[in-house]
Amino acid sequence: MKMSKQFPLNALKVFEAAARLGSFTKAGEELGMTQTAVSYQIKLIEENVGEPLFLRRTRQIALTDVGQRLAPKVTEAFEMLQDAVSSARGDVDAALIIHSTATFASQWLARNIGGFQLAHPNIAVRLTASDQMISFGKEAADVAIRSGAGSWPGLDSYPLMRVEFTPMLSPALAESIGGIHEPRDLLKLRIIDPTDPWWTLWFAAAGVSEPDLAGRPTSRLGAQTFEARAAVAGQGVAILTPEFYPDDIALGRLYQPFELRCSDGCDYWLAYPHARRNTPKIRAFRDWILSELNPDGA
Fold first, then answer.
1. pLDDT 10s digits, 189-199
2. From the CB of residue 142, how many other CB atoms can be counted at a distance below 10 Å?
3. How many Å apart are CA 284 and CA 268, to the nearest integer?
4. Which CATH topology does 166-250 take?
């Protein structure tokens, strides 16, 4: 039996889009089809599978258990087909879409990505930054720089940087209270984002009991890189990863009053779908960034 008879590929493509977008209407818009045509293709694949794949509700659809099991496999299969065709064409000129946390993007990637572009001038780069963890099946991204423990189903992941944190502030702010001599002295100053759990971990490790962080005015700036700018401006003490701010430290704009650093087990990782592990542009970026951050293979 021909594969086209066994597997209705057009219907699978429609199913993949509807499952990824959560909407027959949006799937039709992406594929240039009417909603009626989308519904017909979904019906074909459901008849082929022998089970309903979607729960139809008023103005809403949801995957059934069978649909939830099938969707990631179909997405993976189409990604493999796309990569196979691109490889056969020798097509490595398509853009590499990198999703990164805002802090890693601004404090490391933006400063170093030029080296990758010089080494691979035929690969264009698009960088997007957000601290929200994206789904590769729903958003456009080839690779992601993630903060976490490094275990994500369906993804290959590689450690990039161990994340440690410690209080940092401007020397001028420290001098304004006669210097920082012991950890509790930090509480004399404004704490930038006292709701950040890093503060609780660090003060506990420093032996400071009951720092009363909950009673302080909150100041959520959204990303570590913004908190660092506020600290440089003398607006308070921020809890930061020192490796991201070598220039500010060298120029005396920031300093680390205590050697104590802590970790919450969430480090930086490179991640991408396992099905796309052999994509040339992904392999090129993986090899480059690992060599930059782990030159000794550590």
1. 999 989 999 99
2. 20
3. 19
4. D-Maltodextrin-Binding Protein; domain 2 (3.40.190)
Residue 212's CB: how many other CB atoms inside 10 A?
Answer: 8
Instruction: List the structure tokens of 56.
Output: 């139809």
> How many other C-beta atoms lie within 10 A of the C-beta of residue 11?
20
By the 10 Å C-beta count (0-12 exposed, 13-18 middle, 19+ buried), 251 is classed as exposed
**Runs of H (alpha helix) within the chain:** 3-6, 9-21, 24-31, 35-49, 65-89, 102-104, 110-119, 171-175, 197-205, 224-232, 246-250, 280-293
Looking at CATH, the fold of the domain delimited by 96-162+266-293 is given as D-Maltodextrin-Binding Protein; domain 2 (3.40.190)
Q: Model pTM?
A: 0.71
pLDDT tens across 210-237, in order? 888 887 777 777 789 999 999 999 999 9
The amino acid that residue 276 corresponds to is R
